[in-house]
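Annex B. Sample input.
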Amino acid sequence: MTELIAGELAPLRPGVHRILAPNPSVLTGEGTNTYLIGQRNITLLDPGPDMPEHLDAIDAGIAKLGGQLERIVVTHTHTDHSPGAAALAKRHGVPVVGCDIDDDGYQDASFKADVSLSHGMQIDVDGEVLEAIHTPGHVGNHYCLLHHPSGVLFTGDHIMQGSTVVIIPPSGDMADYCHSLRLLLDYPLAALAPGHGHLIDRPRDEIETLLAHRQGREDKVVAAMISVGEADLDTLLPVAYEDVPASIWPVARLSLLAHVLKLQREGRAVCAADRWRLK
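Annex B, continued. Sample output.
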């Protein structure tokens, strides 16, 4: 597997290039992937953080391809994916395409869409189709984008390579997330281009593995609720997530909340005074 190098213009498929942002962390992995789609009239997908060195690398990539920027598209408005949009849109005089959402404490406050995405919207990229697929779950305004000629699906944070995404209620919803994963099985996918990590060449296998993982975690949550009885999240957490390091528990607690809310939505669990039990 080729090493990801920040700032490098990496060709992935004809008309598809990646530039890695220099923002590695526990949640972003090696950094956020920015994609350039097209050769002449270029669509920029997920500009990433507003870091001068990253924005300059994007400009250098566009120049190297010999094209011009036509638009900026964002999969969602978390702060590692969209903040670079405002500066680049102003610099190039191009529209920003995405979906606004109320701030839940995790959103990019600088983001403003000039054109709103909608499910099934087709964006023309050098005469080829980039189709928007609404995939709520990680966050309510999340979209994946399918590049029809290559079969590459740009997954943002819906699917990450080498890790599972965090679901943070209320904007994140576990039931929606699983439904959105199943929805993708209906599309002719050749590869997944995630917001973090390497290209994934077996998309159906990856999606089915993620669905199985989420179901397995839900089964552990249910088993924990049976074992512990009525309890708050902090009591359930070390039982339901005993297989992950304790250093990860603060993040895991967010997904635990998403799981019990899913059970509540399905009529399988109830909550009173912040204490949860199976119904």
